[in-house]
Amino acid sequence: MAVPFLGGSEWDLADVPDQSGRTVVITGANSGLGLHATRAFASKGADVVMACRSVERGEQAKADLQADVPEDRLTVERIDLADLSAVDSFVEAFESDHDALDVLVNNAGIMAIPRQETVDGFEYQFGVNHLGHFALTAGLLDALESAGGDARVVTQSSGLHTNGQIHFDDLQWEGSYDPWGAYAQSKLANVLFAYELDRRLDAAGSTVTSVACHPGYADTNLQRRGPEMQGSTVRLWAMKVANALVAQSAERGALPMLYGATDPSIAGGEYVGPGGLAGMRGAPEIQTSSDRSYEEPLARRLWEVSEELTGVQYEFGESTTAD
Questions:
Q1: Number of other residues whose CB lies within 10 A of the CB of residue 251
Q2: Domain ranges of the chain
Q3: pLDDT per residue over 270-303, tens digit each?
Q4: What is the tens place of the pLDDT at every residue in 41-62?
Q5: Reading across the β-sheet that carries 23-27, which strands appear in turn?
Q6: Could you identify which of 22, 194, 210, 310 might form a hypothetical disulfide with 102, taking C-beta atoms 3.0 to 4.6 angstroms apart as the criterion?
Q7: Class of 13-308 per CATH?
Q8: Distance in angstroms (rounded) separating the CA atoms of residues 49 and 155
Q9: In terms of C-beta density within 10 A (0-12 exposed, 13-18 middle, 19 or more buried), how is residue 291 classed?
Q10: What are the catalytic residues?
Q11: Per-residue pLDDT at 147
């Protein structure tokens, strides 16, 4: 029986439905939230493709999971969301081995790092967190359509998306760079994308649905990367203290994405997050995202710009929502 965890519903890992016969792709599956989601899906019978930037770390994570799940349910494939050609290669490899995809979890991300650029010249956080997943989802859309119903795309955002703005005049932060502002922009882009994708799927009559989620404040390596890259021992210490005092475990932080990916109540277009302690921890529930995230003209403009930047074109009709 699930135990309530500081508010929200009592939904827990035990409530993940049977996933036998289903295929799941999870980006960033070798650590943190992605690793715990991988364990949960595979333990419920799914075949999980662990999409990882480092195959070596992915294989080590796979080995670490062997005590919990059968080895033949896990496959490690390389993807580098900072390189669109590597995204294309991942899609080609997936399509050569699989006829359909039931769940795509756009989970991998980077937070508040010093400014750098992707292979394709994008600001790294915007390029990895949003544009890489935008291209990946487009590439796997046919496989999702082939699943035959109830296929889902789950895109991981953050509560900090509420601070985000889409700076169309300087999307790549080539002027004055703010690492937290760039992160918030990328996370707002995640929610705008998830909602606009669902609207366009609906308009096309697709059975695929799209949902956004956030983990609250979860104890993962994500918070440590920025301070480590900056060489800031003070920030690193502060992050460790905050994680110890406030954060929930990465296992609990993975629950919103699992809820969004598997719960029968999800119809598409929802935003799922922890239900307790200011949305930072607790069992998952459907929540309201920022006012800006529901601005459909903003979402359409971001979609069009994302297509231009990535060179990707989705293969369904234009959104029918009005300006």
A1: 17
A2: 13-308
A3: 999 998 766 677 889 999 999 999 999 999 999 9
A4: 999 999 999 999 999 999 999 9
A5: 74-78, 47-52, 23-27, 103-106, 152-156, 209-213, 271-276, 281-287
A6: 22
A7: alpha beta
A8: 16
A9: exposed
A10: 183
A11: 95
